[in-house]
Amino acid sequence: MTEHVDAVWRTLRRLGLRPSELDDGVQQVFLVLSRRLEQVEPGRERAYLLGVALRVATDYRRSRRRRPEDATESAALEQRPHEGVSPENLLDEKRRLELLDELIGQLPEELASVFVLHELEELTRAEISQLLALPAGTVASRLRRAREQFERLCKELERSDDRTP
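RE: above sequence
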């Protein structure tokens, strides 16, 4: 199961967990798996874990709305060690990831979850449909709308960058 830790971490991060919440969120996902391992179909572990990650991310966001944000929390992404990569490349990667997080954060929650699972975690629409207990048509519709909104947000960002001196 440890081969899925990175996918769970990325999914939680893309769905809005703060860097300080990620380790606890990942641990929660694997605790749920450990309690329900006998219910998971062989070969479907990754999809199951990502579904649990969606629910954990939703719980974290809901909890955050009920309490004020900690003023000491850093909004910066945690640095993950990269061997053989220059500091400039690390900085560029960090900026791209922050921008991706920002754009995904502007999508409605039901669109963001389908977008992250399909585009970033490469689950099929059928897997997402089963995972979220949604009809296949709903998944396809949400994915289409998410892609359209994401593309619109990217174009708006490009236009604003073009206007900046």
